[in-house]
Amino acid sequence: MQVPAYVEYEKATSVAHALALLARYGPEARILAGGHSLIPMMKLRLAQPETLIDINGLSELSYLTATRDQLRIGALTRHAQLLDSVDAARHFAILHDAELVIADPVVRNWGTVGGSLCQADPSEDLSAAFAALKATMIIAHPGGTRTVPARDFHTGPYETVVGPGEILTEIRITVRPGGGSAYEKVGRRAGDWPVGAAGSALWLDGGGLDGGGLDGGGLDGRGSDGGRLDGGTIADAGIGLTAVGAPHFAAAEAEDFLRGAPATEESFARAGELAAASCRPVSDQRGPADYKRHLACELTIRSLRRALARARQHGGGPPGGIPQDEGRAQTICR
Fold it and tell me: What global pTM score does this model have?
């Protein structure tokens, strides 16, 4: 029977109280949010904190707030809440895509967005999604708060910039016109960790194309003639990758290439090649390194196509939900 080692337990009543408890118990204390990663690790004795500080009762950290120019997500927001958020889906469809393939309803009902990010698993879905969106993390400490770009948040496998006396409290994403985003994942079975996954966000010059929705542009995102996407010029791009050894969960060289490039199949194919070249996957029980590198290329292209289709249609995500029948045209990646 797997039983955790002896541990002290404290229940925080506010963020300030949680910070005070962290200061009292020192670096061997751990924050308990959803617990779906921490508790199994404690049972296996891979993690042996001396004190657990339970923050599940802190409603001040559970919220989704959308303004004209920003989406704010409290760190204690449950995966199911993010999945069901109309505001999140409307502005950033990539979050809906990613949440839909995270674990199962039981885990999503209790697991938290902040907990997943702080676990810093190198195969974490949301880390790639927030990297693609170039989100900002808000970290509270006894002296106030500090901000950290999502791409600087993780310092290595299972390591973040959050210090022993600090708490991740919020994730912020800037809302920009002319954008669309999407997430593509391959796993061994439904709800499993990814063998490889990619998320993309695109912003077009001029805020997208008139009359260029999915109905007019082909369900596979290629365009009605099945060839060029003809989606205008890419003003900015974000590409997030997970489970494939991408530095900081991102493909910076591919993003640089796309900036100012035409939104065409040729551009996306080259971006996929650059994304794969930037990865350092390792062979493990989920698949060989060469296959993961192939996935990095292929899934980057697929997510870019869907992101463009959404940018053309709505300048973001479809209101009232995400279409589930968007086609996935095949591309050959070496």
Answer: 0.88
Range of the domain at 167: 65-174
Q: Which of 166, 168, 169, 164 is nearest to 29 (CA)?
A: 164
Using alpha carbons, list the distances in angstroms from residue 42 to 6, 22, 39, 152, 281.
Answer: 10, 19, 5, 27, 27
Q: At what angle do helices 93-100 and 289-314 cross, to 10 degrees?
A: 140
- 78-87, 227-236, 243-252, 260-269: range with lowest mean pLDDT: 227-236
Same domain, 36 and 69: no
Q: What is the CATH number of the domain that holds 260?
A: 3.30.390.50
**Residue finishing a domain among 54, 76, 92:** 54
How far apart are the C-alpha atoms of 63 and 82, rounded to whole Å?
9
The verdict on 210 and 288 lying in the same domain is yes
Q: Quick one: angle between helices 265-277 and 289-314, nearest 10?
A: 140
Between the alpha carbon of residue 320 and those of residues 47, 85, 209, the distances in Å are 41, 10, 21
* Residue 238 · residue 132 · CB < 8 Å: yes
Residue 332, token pair as written in the block: 């050959």
C-alpha 82 chain-centroid distance: 12
Same domain, 42 and 99: no
- Assess if residue 323 is contained within a domain: no
Cα distance between residue 289 and residue 196, in whole Å: 10
Residue 128: CB atoms within 10 Å:
31
